Amino acid sequence: MAAPFFSTPFQPYVYQSPQDAITPFQILGGEAQVVQIMLKPQEKIIAKPGSMCFMSGSIEMENAYLPENEVGIWQWLFGKNISSIVLRNSGQTDGFVGIAAPYFARILPIDLASFNGEILCQPDAFLCSVNDVKVNNTVDQRGRNVVPSAEGFLRQKISGQGLAFILAGGSVVQKNLEIGEVLAVDVSCIVAVTSTVNVQIKYNGPPRRTMFGGDNAVTALLTGPGIVFIQSLPFHRLSQRIARSVTSPNMRENPKFFIQIAIFFFLAYVVIVSSLILTDV
């Protein structure tokens, strides 16, 4: 007999911390996934605000502000969250928590102990964590690596020895780079890289193309050794497609509409100023 249409595939995993603590978890769903984490009495997880989907009755939830050295001014300037939620099992028996992706995304479990305790991710990639995990927002100080958007140069550094769950849109590809091996990836498609990977930004085409936008205008050259996680559908690309579909047809068929309006007002301004000058003379 065929499986019911509402059945959900899941992948059971068991995470063992450096302190030999065992934490079972399951990744549920196919597209917009949910991670279900089992918690023993007094165990806790830290998650992004608004990500809790369901939990057992013994779980208590509270807000916690990040330490000042983990927040940074860039996180505040670009509207990032400066708080997180702590989910703790206060009961006498085992409980569970379901943490959901905020959009059509896949959840990747990252054992930081296997990545030398550090990994660099795209902004807002962090979903939740178990045990000793810290999340910092860093800025690439090299001028050539600064692209004209907050999402381009604001990177999320996840460090520690615990288990972190990060988000990736669409399908996910993992590339293991050898020493000196170079991989070119669209900047928006990079989910995470290990700290040993060297990242350099390359602009495709003349500067005017980068200024006025365009697909694949900026490419990242990744040099090994290290591991790279690549996503096929970045969230901002999905949101742009949705925005275009709800825009009025006339504006969608004429992408130069705003430029034409700007030129019209500029010429009108020149005519008015010229007429005033001639009138005074």
UniProtKB/TrEMBL annotation:
It comes from the Eukaryota. This is Altered inheritance of mitochondria protein 24, mitochondrial. Keywords: Membrane, Transmembrane, Transmembrane helix. Coiled coil: none annotated. It holds the Pfam family AIM24. It comes from Stylosanthes scabra. PANTHER family: ALTERED INHERITANCE OF MITOCHONDRIA PROTEIN 24, MITOCHONDRIAL (PTHR43657:SF1), TRYPTOPHAN RNA-BINDING ATTENUATOR PROTEIN-LIKE PROTEIN (PTHR43657). InterPro entries: AIM24, AIM24_sf, Trp_RNA-bd_attenuator-like_dom. The keyword Membrane applies. The chain crosses the membrane at residues 217-236, 257-278. Gene3D superfamilies: Mitochondrial biogenesis AIM24.
